[in-house]
Amino acid sequence: MSLPPLSPEQLVKPRHFELRISLIFATLFVPLGTHLPYFPLWLQAKGFHAEQIAVILAAPMFLRVVTTPLLTALADRARDRADVYVALVASALLLSAGYFLTPTYAMMLAVSLALTIVWTPHSPIADSLALSGVRRFGSNYTGMRKWGSISYLFANVAGGFILSATGPGAVPVIIFVSLAAALAAGLLAPRLGRPRRSSPLSATDIQQSAPKLLNPYFLYFSIGVGVITASHAFLYGFVSIYWKSIGIGDSVVGLLWAWGVVSEVCMFMMFTRFFGAFSVVTIMMMAGVGAVVRWIAFPLVWPLGLGVAGFFGVQTLHSVSVALVLIGLQKMIGETISEERTGAAQGIAYFSNGFFMAVVTLASGPLYDRFGVDGFFAMIPIALIGLILIGLAARSAPQRRIGR
């Protein structure tokens, strides 16, 4: 017995679908592009030491690995995922005002914990909306998602120059204003209704050939992605502090972060032409190898006298260790997971990313306190473990893909 087809309303492509989703991605990544590189600098400026910074960064990650899958699964069951997105962005805007309160350790930890519950699901729900467009209307995912990377790039560069002029105190203001812009864009999000449940396969075929979310391939792949991603925790938590400690100014720090995103955008633009025919396992293996090379090179740049140019060179590997992970994960979900489970699959993948990122971030504070930049060497075995898990996924890869 075949599953019910799309409703007549779901067969109609919303006007300017790609433009509206691109706008969501563009506004979504501005606050993220401010928080990741500059929030640790703001915490340091408020007098917090490395271990306290690590806890403030890591504790929300542990919480969100529980709350994000629940909220993304709830979005799948809602009348429209766009409405859930708008509610979460509005909540994040209100909670981000907590960073204007007196910055005690307990207060900043509490605000960060509350904020992460409603902030982290933004990206997987936006991805879920974009992937519905890919399935129903043949939209190009990378064509829409690249605007998120471009806006992230803008936030990196603009944030660096703003901080050079005003100091780290501007960070909470930038986050608040950019979340307000994300709310405005969310109100324009295309309404798609509930995820489709139709498939070119019969219900029996789906039960037999469509992998369940807890099958070995999906689990090994998702955990492997999470571990490779987690090897970036030391970079995300402490590289801005390290760059500042060796005399690199805020504007250059912003440009260094931005250069990594430039390379990411370039990968999004050229992926289909040069890497579109590769399997998702091969793509993820390349990403893992890129991460290993990056963590070997990073601590050697300054001692070898390569200067800021050397850091720009290493940041180019962002196109491999990060961009290929982002694309490969969505490619795997699009090929092997039916649409009615897409939000849940996104949530499980983010659970994996968040849990391992939290563990490594928590360890990164003591690592930086004791070893400084040499803490990057500890990220190498983490990336290697991720590669092993991707290899195990390859051995249990499904033989059939899910059709549109």
Automatic annotation (TrEMBL):
The chain crosses the membrane at residues 21-41, 53-75, 82-101, 107-126, 147-164, 170-189, 217-235, 241-262, 274-298, 304-327, 348-368, 374-394. Residues 21-378 form the Major facilitator superfamily associated domain. It is found in: Cell inner membrane. It holds the Pfam family MFS_1_like. Keywords: Cell inner membrane, Cell membrane, Membrane, Transmembrane, Transmembrane helix, Transport. It comes from the Bacteria. The keyword Cell inner membrane applies. NCBIfam families: mfs. This is MFS transporter. It comes from Mesorhizobium qingshengii.
